[in-house]
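P.,

For your records, the input lines for the assembly:
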Amino acid sequence: MKTSFKSALVATTAFVGLTLSGAAMAETMKIGITQNNVGVDSYQTTYEKAFIAAADANDKVETVVLDAGGDVARQIAQMEDLIQQEVDAIIIWPTNGEAVIPAVRKAHKAGIPVIVTNSNIAEQGFEFVKSFSGPDNITQGRRSAEIMCDKFKAMGTENEAKVVHITGQPGYTTAIERAKGFDDRLPEVCPNVTQIDKQPGDWNREKSQKVMEAFLVKYDDIDGVYSGDDNMGVGALNAAKAAGREGIIFVGATNFAVGYEAMGRGEYWGSIYQSPVDDAEAALKTAIDVLSGKDIPFLNYFDTPKITQDNMAEFDKPVF
Amino acid sequence: MAPGTLSTFLKRGAIWGFIVLELVFFSVAGEFLSLSDKAFMDLDNMLLLFKQSAPIGIIAIGMTIIMINGNIDLSVGATFALSAIVLLDSMTWPMFGGLGDGVIPLAWGLALMTGVVLGALNGLIVWKTGVDAFIVTLGSMLGYRGLVFMYNGEQPTSHLNWTLVDLAESQFMGLHTPTWFLIAVTAVIWFVMNKTVHGRNAYAIGDNRTAAINAGIRVGPHFVINFMIIGFLASLSAVVFYSESGSVNPNDGELYELWVITAVVLGGTKLTGGAGSVLSTLGGVLAIQLLRKGLGHIGADTETVNLVIGLILIAVLFLDRQLNLKGREALKT
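Structure tokens returned:
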């Protein structure tokens, strides 16, 4: 009785397995992916769905889709399992950019090309990685600067505007790169716009709101705010609204649903559109290109276009 | 055959029977569903199984003693993370600057000491306040995790030392380093539980605390020692694992307490204490890791792992209850 009960359980599992893995075919590319933490936010959930859909649509590809649940130990075990299964390529979304380096080295030693997706591993691991597929944060920062400058030009304030800058968490590569892109590009396109202050908002909406409150007290004249992502941007926007300061141009990056909605209300000017679908498809394509022997740049970016109140109708509302 | 022998045998054997079932199922299903040409029961894959079981397994062995005592320790995940931070960070402390790779054993020592101290703290509070271990360790779980976040904020603590990684990745007689630690810990704790006074006392206290006190067992100090053991093992698990990975996220080890307790319960240890076996716990750990591995092998969605483990856990508890009922009836007749 106990055996039959358990085998029923296991059989249920098998059906789930059946529906998810495609029919075995000869001479297909076997690609394994271990993701960071599906289900923790809708960006990652959408990413996984898009990845599976893209893999299903391509009959030359077979995939093993794994999720580390945010647990480094489980991700390393999954890397070992994929090496053991002798897949042709491994895509990894690191749970920790340094902890996975030894596991990546193992795959490299086993002759399996590794593609890092979404956020890169630390530089010590670069020699074991074939390619990084993800957003180009420096370009994102540069584009945000262009969005802001174009708006100032349209308003005719490009010779006097003053800008404050709220960055992501100190030490995070994404934060550093976006800030650098913005700082470098703004004086190139709008040489007379001055950046009067820059403070970290730690990717956190409340923290960013506090930073902005301090800016508003300190400076009577603020024309533009650039934040490292829309989450912080909306925090800054809330601070400005509470203080009754109008006419400030808000530009962010990684368009969040809250940012998109604020743009719809005309309170937030623009951002950078980063789609998890593009992210997933780029990762799979990079892996396929690597296996087909194509020449792939080490940093293989997917496009993250500008989005403003003017062109937002062309984009779907972000799911996160 | 004495009454109850059969049910004990079934209880002890159930987890191993389940493991065999898993092996057969994933081997057969793997032939059809896996995109790998390698068999599931490939020797290397089975060796990996033991290695991957080590982080949870080493802690679960310690949790077995705690649960045989009738206690529980929810702070093991936080202890795991804090020990990992001490391990990786101490290697960069300037006062050890001149030691080169000689710093490695020192860092190991410091990390292990962290666990022993945190465990002793848990044990002392349980002893001196008489508050239930569940509440005490719930508090220390939050408190120790707070220390983890105070140490480095939201950022990972990292120190990648290739000498250490090579050491941790090495294989001795075919077995990976973590596997050796898992085997050694299981053997030592098995010996303690079955062949020493301390181990037999653990069963006595869990079975009937009042009787144990009347028999002259000093329950308080006994608890402190056991909490020190599990603290040590949580740190040992961190030492073994982070020697090979070199960076710890502040949320690492979260939910480990639940996986550990799941493994112990799967192995047939009673939540109320007084009964349990170290070897069956090892079986519970292997069963969980086999399930994770197997579902990955046949390409099933990893989220189904949690669902299946949950169902099996309930099935095991149900089975345990049924067998216990039958055992008692047998005694009556």
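Two observations worth noting. Chain B has one domain: 12-22+44-323. The first strand of chain B starts at residue 157 and ends at 158.

Regards
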